[in-house]
């Protein structure tokens, strides 16, 4: 039996794979939405409450940064997911399945995304912030109209990196009862030594990561007004010699 016939007759491919793909997409999309909703404000808070920020709160910043963010990031995801099983049962009513796994996936990636958001905001020129303050903008207006728009390419890149990380985490979650491609690879590829299922699973996860990265890169380029301005200036420079010759 060749590889093509194996794909059409293997029950791990024909029956279990479609469900596993849907469960993985479910985990990544739901966790990604909650990570964005919680991690973005948390990252903005880490930036604005730091020393020299818009609203310095050194004590609160140290508590949130060192205790909440750093400690959560230092725990390996496999251990974190097992530790959060009781919380997942309280929130979702179940300790297994893709929905229950979203609790650990969200808690595991929110601190990571918040740090990336904080780093992206640090790249915003302080001159633009000072100019907004001189014009009488409030802190909230500076955040909404200066910080976030100026850091938008970096924020999109941070979200892309987080989504790719979620794909990897979702595979680990599958081994501990979360379902998805991770559980399929473990059940068929590891326990049954089914090489075909293992190869197909890896290929699908690579395609998924490549798709997320391609979409994220395209979105980052689209919102980057600096590259648009550079492209515009290059076009202008290309037209300059023609104008000079005409004169």
Overview of this protein structure:
This protein has helices at residues 3-9, 11-48, 58-74, 77-83, 85-92, 98-122, 126-134, 139-150, 152-178, 180-191, 195-223, 225-246. With 247 residues, the chain is mostly helical. It has a single domain (12-128, 135-226), classed as MetI-like fold. The radius of gyration is 23 Å and the shape is elongated. It starts with a helix and ends with a helix. Mean pLDDT is 87; it is low at 239-247.
Secondary structure: number of strands: 0
Helix content: over 70%
Could you spell the SSE succession in H and E letters?
Answer: HHHHHHHHHHHH
The tally of domains stands at 1
Classified by CATH, the class is: Mainly Alpha
Largest β sheet strand count, sense and barrel closure:
none
Region (Disordered): 227-247
Family: Belongs to the binding-protein-dependent transport system permease family. CysTW subfamily.
Pfam families: BPD_transp_1 (PF00528)
Membrane topology: Multi-pass membrane protein
Topology overview:
Blueprint: H1 3-9, H2 11-48, H3 58-74, H4 77-83, H5 85-92, H6 98-122, H7 126-134, H8 139-150, H9 152-178, H10 180-191, H11 195-223, H12 225-246
Short summary:
The chain is mainly alpha-helical. It has twelve helices and no strands. One of its GO terms (biological process) is D-methionine transmembrane transport.
Question: Could you name the key traits of this structure?
Answer:
0% strand; MetI-like fold; 86% helix; single chain; disordered C terminus; 12 helices; 247 residues; mainly alpha
